Amino acid sequence: MLTRIRLTYHEFPTRFWALVFASFVDGVGSTLIFPFFALYVTQRFQVGMTEAGMLLAVFSAAGFAGNMLGGGLADRIGRRTVVLFGLVFSALSSVAMGLVDSLAAFYVLAVFVGLLSDVAGPAQGAMVADMLPEEQRAEGFGVLRVARNVAWIVGPTIGGFLAARSYLLLFVLDAISSLITAAIVYRLIAETMPQRPAQAGRETLGQTFRSYIRVLGDSGYMAFLVVSILMNLVYIQLYSTFSVYLRDVHGIPTQGYGLLMSMNATTVVLLQFWVTRRTKRYPPMVMMALGSALYLVGFTMFGVVSAYLLFAAAMILVTLGEMVVIPVGQALVTRFAPQDMRGRYMAVFGLSWGIPAAAGPWAAGLIMDNLNPDWVWYVGGLLSGLAVAGFLALHAQTRARLAADQAAELEARAAP
Q1: Are residues 156 and 224 in the same domain?
Q2: Which long-range contacts (CB under 8 A, 24 or more apart) does 194-200 make?
């Protein structure tokens, strides 16, 4: 196994591993806080979950705007500059969130934090596409997922221990992790943005952002986005509705949900790279359909089974599905995107998560409060089935385009 790890390490460039390590350090800092954010808000400001939920909605809406801003800037001024700005601002805003003592001021802060702390997301995705050849990108995104899942194991464990003593300490440690990450990026990762075409170099800042119209006019990419939204409307229930469903319908305590989620993260850490190595041999849209089919079975099982071991078995199927679709989906964005628009395509791809995060839990809540709660998972199975059909249809429609784009990239890399 050590030999396999050593060989894998040498297959990727050093600066990619620097990015992976930076992502891990930053992930540990953010996961110190995120799982305990609602607890902090309700305790600090003496409010209920409605207020905490509204704050999260503000963060989400502002974060999408920040993604759009970051995608345009990443294609115009460079990935590294945008990442560094996002990290430094994240450090400052984290300390501010730990010190603010007014809920009204926290709402205002949430707008700025959501807007500017999330600018680096598209730039990081574009960096991976810049660093790695097309045939390695799904694996590269898979490696980043492993690093983030390890961070999810480490961060909440430390955060849970420290939160009982001081929430401010969590915010300070998050700020320190952001600054350490910025130092890693500054010292070890040079700018990765490819040389821009002469015409792109002459465009104004306004033209850069107006070119989002070009992204929205890419019919094949937008169809891929719509089907991804259907798929993620189901997946997002894992982090919102599932814990309440287990507790209220099956009497499974929070610890039982936590154990299932720990199993999910551990499985990703152990198997993600192995899974991605195998899925890259097959057409990507077919693999997206396969992952959606695993969602169909796994999420539908949540509404059918009642034994805890069967919930664990369903969770394994869901985890296998996400290990297929998340890296392959990110790599597909880079296949659709022209080289000089990777940041903007990545930013628009944020809709595939932003819309489900905003609408999914609300829609599931309506079902759980007014109908048989099992219907959350039956509807999830139906949406997953539609996603399977959608990805298979996209395979037929986009196969020639994706193959031509791949051939053009290989030709460009071979040119002197």
Answers
A1: no
A2: 194/130, 194/339, 194/340, 196/340, 197/340, 200/340
